[in-house]
Protein backbone atom coordinates (compact mmCIF):
# COMPACT_ATOMS: atom_id res chain seq x y z
CA UNK A 1 0.00 0.00 0.00
CA UNK A 2 1.09 3.57 -0.67
CA UNK A 3 2.11 5.54 2.43
CA UNK A 4 0.12 8.78 2.55
CA UNK A 5 -1.39 11.42 4.81
CA UNK A 6 -4.67 13.24 4.96
CA UNK A 7 -4.47 17.03 4.74
CA UNK A 8 -6.87 19.89 5.39
CA UNK A 9 -6.47 23.54 4.43
CA UNK A 10 -8.99 25.49 6.50
CA UNK A 11 -9.79 28.84 4.95
CA UNK A 12 -12.46 31.38 5.76
CA UNK A 13 -13.88 31.06 2.25
CA UNK A 14 -12.94 27.56 1.12
CA UNK A 15 -12.27 24.30 2.94
CA UNK A 16 -9.95 21.93 1.08
CA UNK A 17 -8.90 18.35 1.75
CA UNK A 18 -6.49 15.94 0.11
CA UNK A 19 -4.66 12.66 0.32
CA UNK A 20 -0.95 13.37 -0.14
CA UNK A 21 1.57 10.64 -0.83
CA UNK A 22 4.97 10.46 0.88
CA UNK A 23 6.80 12.21 -1.98
CA UNK A 24 4.34 15.13 -1.96
CA UNK A 25 2.01 14.07 -4.78
CA UNK A 26 -1.66 14.97 -4.28
CA UNK A 27 -3.49 11.72 -4.94
CA UNK A 28 -7.05 12.95 -4.24
CA UNK A 29 -8.58 16.36 -3.68
CA UNK A 30 -11.95 17.78 -2.61
CA UNK A 31 -13.19 21.24 -1.62
CA UNK A 32 -16.31 23.02 -0.45
CA UNK A 33 -17.26 26.56 0.62
CA UNK A 34 -16.50 26.92 4.33
CA UNK A 35 -19.53 27.31 6.59
CA UNK A 36 -17.72 30.20 8.27
CA UNK A 37 -20.80 31.38 10.16
CA UNK A 38 -21.86 27.91 11.32
CA UNK A 39 -19.42 27.57 14.18
CA UNK A 40 -16.80 24.88 14.87
CA UNK A 41 -19.10 21.86 14.86
CA UNK A 42 -20.52 22.71 11.43
CA UNK A 43 -17.08 23.16 9.90
CA UNK A 44 -15.71 20.03 11.57
CA UNK A 45 -18.61 18.09 10.07
CA UNK A 46 -17.60 19.49 6.67
CA UNK A 47 -14.03 18.32 7.30
CA UNK A 48 -15.21 14.80 8.09
CA UNK A 49 -17.29 14.71 4.90
CA UNK A 50 -14.39 15.85 2.71
CA UNK A 51 -12.01 13.41 4.38
CA UNK A 52 -14.48 10.60 3.72
CA UNK A 53 -14.60 11.67 0.07
CA UNK A 54 -10.84 11.70 -0.53
CA UNK A 55 -10.31 8.46 1.39
CA UNK A 56 -12.91 6.76 -0.80
CA UNK A 57 -10.94 7.85 -3.87
CA UNK A 58 -7.68 6.34 -2.56
CA UNK A 59 -8.51 2.87 -1.19
CA UNK A 60 -4.91 1.74 -1.67
CA UNK A 61 -3.43 4.45 0.56
CA UNK A 62 -1.99 3.60 3.96
CA UNK A 63 -2.94 6.67 5.99
CA UNK A 64 -0.42 7.65 8.68
CA UNK A 65 -2.28 10.68 10.04
CA UNK A 66 -3.91 14.03 9.33
CA UNK A 67 -2.20 17.40 9.02
CA UNK A 68 -4.21 20.62 9.22
CA UNK A 69 -3.27 24.13 8.12
CA UNK A 70 -5.55 26.69 9.79
CA UNK A 71 -5.67 30.45 10.30
CA UNK A 72 -4.07 31.71 13.50
CA UNK A 73 -3.49 32.54 16.13
CA UNK A 74 -3.23 28.90 17.17
CA UNK A 75 -1.15 26.69 19.42
CA UNK A 76 0.48 24.00 17.26
CA UNK A 77 1.82 22.03 20.23
CA UNK A 78 -1.59 21.78 21.92
CA UNK A 79 -3.45 21.45 18.61
CA UNK A 80 -5.78 24.30 19.56
CA UNK A 81 -7.20 27.05 17.33
CA UNK A 82 -6.97 30.00 19.71
CA UNK A 83 -8.89 32.63 17.74
CA UNK A 84 -9.62 32.44 14.00
CA UNK A 85 -11.04 35.87 13.09
CA UNK A 86 -12.46 34.69 9.74
CA UNK A 87 -14.46 31.87 11.39
CA UNK A 88 -17.33 32.64 13.75
CA UNK A 89 -17.08 31.06 17.20
CA UNK A 90 -13.59 29.64 16.77
CA UNK A 91 -12.03 30.41 20.13
CA UNK A 92 -9.92 27.85 21.97
CA UNK A 93 -11.12 24.96 19.79
CA UNK A 94 -9.09 21.74 20.43
CA UNK A 95 -9.32 20.81 16.77
CA UNK A 96 -6.55 18.20 16.73
CA UNK A 97 -8.01 16.29 19.67
CA UNK A 98 -11.54 16.37 18.26
CA UNK A 99 -10.55 15.01 14.86
CA UNK A 100 -8.11 12.49 16.29
CA UNK A 101 -10.90 11.00 18.39
CA UNK A 102 -13.41 10.97 15.56
CA UNK A 103 -11.10 9.66 12.83
CA UNK A 104 -8.84 7.43 14.89
CA UNK A 105 -5.62 8.89 13.47
CA UNK A 106 -2.76 11.09 14.64
CA UNK A 107 -3.56 14.78 13.96
CA UNK A 108 -1.17 17.73 13.83
CA UNK A 109 -2.14 21.39 13.51
CA UNK A 110 -0.12 24.24 12.04
CA UNK A 111 -0.63 27.86 10.99
CA UNK A 112 -1.70 27.86 7.34
CA UNK A 113 1.13 30.12 6.16
CA UNK A 114 3.65 27.97 8.03
CA UNK A 115 2.16 24.86 6.45
CA UNK A 116 2.63 26.37 2.99
CA UNK A 117 6.22 27.24 3.88
CA UNK A 118 6.83 23.63 4.91
CA UNK A 119 5.31 22.41 1.65
CA UNK A 120 7.63 24.57 -0.45
CA UNK A 121 10.65 23.69 1.70
CA UNK A 122 10.14 19.96 1.65
CA UNK A 123 8.67 19.43 -1.81
CA UNK A 124 8.80 22.71 -3.75
CA UNK A 125 11.05 25.66 -4.52
CA UNK A 126 12.81 25.50 -1.14
CA UNK A 127 14.15 21.96 -1.49
CA UNK A 128 17.83 21.69 -0.61
CA UNK A 129 17.93 24.75 1.65
CA UNK A 130 18.39 24.92 5.41
CA UNK A 131 17.12 28.49 5.74
CA UNK A 132 14.42 30.10 3.57
CA UNK A 133 11.46 32.44 3.81
CA UNK A 134 8.18 31.76 2.02
CA UNK A 135 6.04 34.82 1.33
CA UNK A 136 2.47 34.56 0.10
CA UNK A 137 1.05 37.72 -1.45
CA UNK A 138 -2.68 37.53 -2.06
CA UNK A 139 -5.60 39.15 -0.22
CA UNK A 140 -3.23 39.55 2.72
CA UNK A 141 0.50 39.08 3.04
CA UNK A 142 1.96 36.34 5.19
CA UNK A 143 4.48 33.57 5.20
CA UNK A 144 6.66 31.20 7.10
CA UNK A 145 10.32 31.11 8.07
CA UNK A 146 12.66 28.12 8.04
CA UNK A 147 15.87 28.73 10.02
CA UNK A 148 18.67 26.14 10.26
CA UNK A 149 16.35 23.35 9.21
CA UNK A 150 13.52 24.21 11.60
CA UNK A 151 10.22 26.04 11.20
CA UNK A 152 10.33 29.18 13.33
CA UNK A 153 7.45 29.18 15.83
CA UNK A 154 8.36 31.66 18.55
CA UNK A 155 6.17 32.40 21.57
CA UNK A 156 2.73 30.78 21.24
CA UNK A 157 3.55 29.87 17.64
CA UNK A 158 3.17 33.49 16.54
CA UNK A 159 6.58 34.05 14.89
CA UNK A 160 6.77 34.94 11.23
CA UNK A 161 3.93 37.48 11.01
CA UNK A 162 5.98 39.13 8.30
CA UNK A 163 3.07 41.03 6.78
CA UNK A 164 2.90 43.20 9.87
CA UNK A 165 6.41 44.59 9.81
CA UNK A 166 6.11 48.37 9.86
CA UNK A 167 7.70 49.66 6.66
CA UNK A 168 6.21 53.14 6.23
CA UNK A 169 4.96 56.13 8.20
CA UNK A 170 2.15 56.66 5.67
CA UNK A 171 -1.18 56.26 7.49
CA UNK A 172 -2.52 53.32 5.46
CA UNK A 173 -4.63 51.19 7.80
CA UNK A 174 -3.93 47.47 7.78
CA UNK A 175 -6.56 44.77 8.32
CA UNK A 176 -4.83 44.01 11.63
CA UNK A 177 -5.73 47.49 12.87
CA UNK A 178 -2.23 48.90 12.69
CA UNK A 179 -0.79 51.42 10.26
CA UNK A 180 2.25 51.21 8.05
CA UNK A 181 2.29 47.40 7.80
CA UNK A 182 3.92 45.71 4.81
CA UNK A 183 0.54 44.07 4.11
CA UNK A 184 -1.09 47.51 3.86
CA UNK A 185 1.22 48.44 0.99
CA UNK A 186 2.16 45.21 -0.81
CA UNK A 187 -0.81 42.81 -0.54
CA UNK A 188 -3.29 42.09 -3.31
CA UNK A 189 -5.80 44.20 -1.38
CA UNK A 190 -3.37 47.13 -1.42
CA UNK A 191 -2.74 46.69 -5.15
CA UNK A 192 -6.51 46.70 -5.80
CA UNK A 193 -6.92 49.80 -3.62
CA UNK A 194 -4.36 51.74 -5.63
CA UNK A 195 -5.88 50.51 -8.89
CA UNK A 196 -9.34 51.64 -7.75
CA UNK A 197 -7.98 55.09 -6.97
CA UNK A 198 -6.47 55.29 -10.44
CA UNK A 199 -9.66 54.10 -12.14
CA UNK A 200 -11.73 56.60 -10.14
CA UNK A 201 -9.46 59.42 -11.35
CA UNK A 202 -10.11 58.44 -14.97
CA UNK A 203 -6.44 57.68 -15.60
CA UNK A 204 -6.77 53.91 -16.09
CA UNK A 205 -9.30 53.29 -18.90
CA UNK A 206 -8.05 49.78 -19.72
CA UNK A 207 -8.41 48.57 -16.13
CA UNK A 208 -11.84 50.24 -15.96
CA UNK A 209 -12.85 48.36 -19.12
CA UNK A 210 -11.64 45.04 -17.74
CA UNK A 211 -13.47 45.61 -14.46
CA UNK A 212 -16.69 46.33 -16.37
CA UNK A 213 -18.28 48.32 -13.57
CA UNK A 214 -17.30 45.80 -10.89
CA UNK A 215 -14.69 46.57 -8.23
CA UNK A 216 -11.24 46.55 -9.77
CA UNK A 217 -8.95 43.79 -8.47
CA UNK A 218 -5.31 42.79 -8.70
CA UNK A 219 -6.32 40.36 -11.44
CA UNK A 220 -7.46 43.28 -13.59
CA UNK A 221 -4.13 45.00 -12.99
CA UNK A 222 -2.31 41.84 -14.07
CA UNK A 223 -4.42 41.42 -17.22
CA UNK A 224 -3.86 45.02 -18.24
CA UNK A 225 -0.12 44.86 -17.50
CA UNK A 226 0.29 41.74 -19.59
CA UNK A 227 -1.19 43.71 -22.49
CA UNK A 228 1.38 46.46 -21.98
CA UNK A 229 -0.98 48.96 -20.34
CA UNK A 230 1.21 51.75 -18.97
CA UNK A 231 -0.86 52.62 -15.82
CA UNK A 232 -1.04 48.92 -14.88
CA UNK A 233 2.67 48.45 -15.41
CA UNK A 234 3.33 51.48 -13.19
CA UNK A 235 1.13 49.95 -10.45
CA UNK A 236 3.06 46.68 -10.63
CA UNK A 237 6.33 48.61 -10.54
CA UNK A 238 5.16 50.30 -7.32
CA UNK A 239 4.04 46.91 -5.98
CA UNK A 240 7.47 45.46 -6.75
CA UNK A 241 9.16 48.33 -4.94
CA UNK A 242 7.09 47.75 -1.78
CA UNK A 243 7.79 44.02 -2.02
CA UNK A 244 11.50 44.72 -2.43
CA UNK A 245 11.53 46.87 0.72
CA UNK A 246 9.95 44.12 2.81
CA UNK A 247 12.10 41.41 1.27
CA UNK A 248 15.20 43.40 2.16
CA UNK A 249 14.06 43.40 5.79
CA UNK A 250 13.60 39.63 5.65
CA UNK A 251 17.11 39.19 4.25
CA UNK A 252 18.59 41.18 7.12
CA UNK A 253 16.44 39.46 9.76
CA UNK A 254 16.80 35.81 8.76
CA UNK A 255 19.72 35.52 6.28
CA UNK A 256 17.89 32.92 4.16
CA UNK A 257 19.36 31.03 1.24
CA UNK A 258 16.24 31.71 -0.82
CA UNK A 259 13.18 33.94 -0.80
CA UNK A 260 10.13 32.17 -2.27
CA UNK A 261 7.20 34.23 -3.50
CA UNK A 262 3.73 32.69 -3.79
CA UNK A 263 0.06 33.69 -3.82
CA UNK A 264 -1.96 35.41 -6.52
CA UNK A 265 0.21 38.53 -6.68
CA UNK A 266 3.33 36.47 -6.14
CA UNK A 267 2.57 34.62 -9.37
CA UNK A 268 3.23 37.90 -11.19
CA UNK A 269 6.92 37.72 -10.23
CA UNK A 270 8.12 37.70 -13.88
CA UNK A 271 6.57 41.17 -14.33
CA UNK A 272 8.11 42.48 -11.10
CA UNK A 273 11.42 40.66 -10.79
CA UNK A 274 13.73 43.38 -12.11
CA UNK A 275 12.30 46.09 -9.86
CA UNK A 276 12.39 43.77 -6.84
CA UNK A 277 16.04 42.95 -7.53
CA UNK A 278 16.90 46.62 -8.06
CA UNK A 279 15.22 47.60 -4.78
CA UNK A 280 17.14 44.90 -2.92
CA UNK A 281 20.41 46.05 -4.54
CA UNK A 282 19.73 49.61 -3.40
CA UNK A 283 18.74 48.74 0.18
CA UNK A 284 20.39 45.49 1.27
CA UNK A 285 23.87 45.16 2.69
CA UNK A 286 26.20 43.73 0.07
CA UNK A 287 26.43 40.28 1.69
CA UNK A 288 22.68 39.75 1.17
CA UNK A 289 22.27 40.94 -2.42
CA UNK A 290 22.94 37.59 -4.10
CA UNK A 291 20.06 35.74 -2.41
CA UNK A 292 17.63 34.65 -5.15
CA UNK A 293 13.94 35.58 -5.18
CA UNK A 294 12.11 32.70 -6.85
CA UNK A 295 8.53 31.72 -7.60
CA UNK A 296 6.73 29.13 -5.48
CA UNK A 297 6.49 25.73 -7.15
CA UNK A 298 3.42 24.12 -5.56
CA UNK A 299 0.79 26.78 -6.26
CA UNK A 300 -2.45 26.37 -4.32
CA UNK A 301 -1.36 22.92 -3.10
CA UNK A 302 1.49 24.25 -0.95
CA UNK A 303 -0.64 24.41 2.21
CA UNK A 304 -2.09 20.94 1.73
CA UNK A 305 1.26 19.35 0.94
CA UNK A 306 2.88 21.10 3.88
CA UNK A 307 0.10 20.08 6.25
CA UNK A 308 0.45 16.47 5.13
CA UNK A 309 4.19 16.64 5.73
CA UNK A 310 3.54 17.35 9.43
CA UNK A 311 2.66 13.69 9.84
CA UNK A 312 4.58 12.25 6.90
CA UNK A 313 7.91 13.64 8.08
CA UNK A 314 7.16 14.82 11.59
CA UNK A 315 7.00 18.40 12.79
CA UNK A 316 9.99 20.57 11.86
From TrEMBL:
Family membership noted in the UniProt record: Belongs to the ROK (NagC/XylR) family.
One Pfam family, short name: ROK
Native source organism of the sequence: Kaistia terrae
Alphabetized InterPro entries for the sequence: ATPase_NBD, ROK, ROK_cs
Protein name (record): ROK family protein
Gene3D superfamilies linked: 3.30.420.40
Lineage, broadest ranks: Bacteria, Pseudomonadati, Pseudomonadota, Alphaproteobacteria, Hyphomicrobiales
CDD domains in the record: ASKHA_ATPase_ROK_BsXylR-like
Amino acid sequence: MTRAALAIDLGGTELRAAVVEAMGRVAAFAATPTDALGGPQAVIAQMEALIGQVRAETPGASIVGLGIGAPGPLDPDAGVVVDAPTLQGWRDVPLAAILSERLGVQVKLENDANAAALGEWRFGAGQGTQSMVFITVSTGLGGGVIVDGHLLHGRRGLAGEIGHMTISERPERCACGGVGCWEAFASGTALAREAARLVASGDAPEMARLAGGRPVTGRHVAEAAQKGDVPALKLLDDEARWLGIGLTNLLHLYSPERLILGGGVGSLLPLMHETIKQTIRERAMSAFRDVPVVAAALGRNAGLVGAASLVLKGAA
